[in-house]
Amino acid sequence: MNDTISGLELTRRLIAFDTINPPGDEAECFSYLADLLAAAGFELTWHDWRPNRPNLIARLPATEAAARAPLAFSGHLDTVPLGQATWSVDPFAGEEKEGRLYGRGAADMKSGVAAFVIAALRLAAQPVRRAEIQLLVTAGEETGCEGAQGLVASGLLQDAHALVIAEPTDNRALCGHKGALWMNLVHEGVTAHGSMPEKGRNAIFAAVESIQRLRGHDFGITPHQVMGGPTLNIGNMKAGLNVNSVPDRACVGVDIRSVVGQTNEAIRSDLRRLLGDGVVLETLTDMDNVYTDFDDPWLDSVFDVAEELLGSEREVATATYFTDASVLKPAMGNPPTLIMGPGAMAMAHQTDEYCEIARIEPCIEVFERLCRDHVA
């Protein structure tokens, strides 16, 4: 089976497993992959992060004394819900139509997982390997990289020579992504009857004052040459129970995207000073930015391979979303990190999600070359 299964077929088989998160039940999909990898000689380490929600480390060991640290590939198997709109195809059938493979997770990111698994399976038959290849497959990414955080906490990870995250990039070789800091700003007031507002303290007024302070807030950082500048968005506001009462609580949802030169902890400290002690900052998502300098030797070699195999011009760019790299990269010795996968960025989380079939095999070829160069 290892010799004949294609990237297209493996993607289709992974799509067939319902791994929607929430609630999240990736166990059967993980077991299928584990059987495939074990049959090819991979050494498997299971991390039972939660019941029926494992993480998996699959190691293809070196056959000789290792010349360098492992090359690691990573991807998640959970997907987002289907959404309210009706799909025109069965989201778990892996239907092919007009050169596209349809299904939930086709782009984000079961095609990416299939690509690095097939690349590693092809390498398994190579008799001489002077370094190790690692596949890190995670659960719970879509709800804040929870599985990856559990894997880091387990102590099972080791330093890597380089890290590849196979998220959807349209096969573009990207060198990082902005960080994400999502928070609720909680404002407490004192309730009173709406006819006597002077008896209370209106939490909405406090929230509006915070919003005014945040509007146009200058983070005091020069825009990064690749990522650009940080952004801040007020995404929602929840306050009040009825029109004839003074609201005693108001929550403002804030989405901040950080860039190189910033840490989320420093941003939190900055906002505490800006907003004052009366506002409670509740962190919802905390993912630091990820970036590898484009002149890094390993990343430079990746650009060369992509140019040769894909015919793509050298491009220095970063992703718009965050990935498990926020969690894994610092836990693995901060190796150079590539974000690349065959899925289309624009198709992530969409109704009738699909992956262009023609992108799958070229991505596998790039990953296989990276593997062969690493173990040579």
Could you walk me through the main structural features you see in this protein, from its secondary elements to its overall organization?
The chain has 376 residues and is an alpha+beta fold. The chain has 2 domains: 7-177 and 289-375, Zn peptidases (Aminopeptidase); 179-287, 2-Layer Sandwich (Alpha-Beta Plaits). It has 9 helices and 15 strands. Strand 1 and strand 2 form a beta hairpin. Helix 3 packs across helix 9 (360-375) and helix 7 (297-310) crosses helix 9. The longest helix has 19 residues, at 106-124. The two termini are 26 Å apart.
Q: Indicate the overall shape.
A: globular
The average pLDDT is 96
Structural domain tally: 2
State the separation between the terminal residues, measured CA to CA: 26 Å
The amount of helix comes to: 25-40%
CATH class group of the largest domain = Alpha Beta
Number of strands: 15
Strand order of the largest sheet: 1-2-6-3-7-14
Per CATH, what is the topology of the largest domain?
Aminopeptidase
- Protein structure class: alpha+beta
Per CATH, the architecture of the largest domain is 3-Layer(aba) Sandwich
Number of helices: 9
The value of Rg in angstroms is: 23 Å
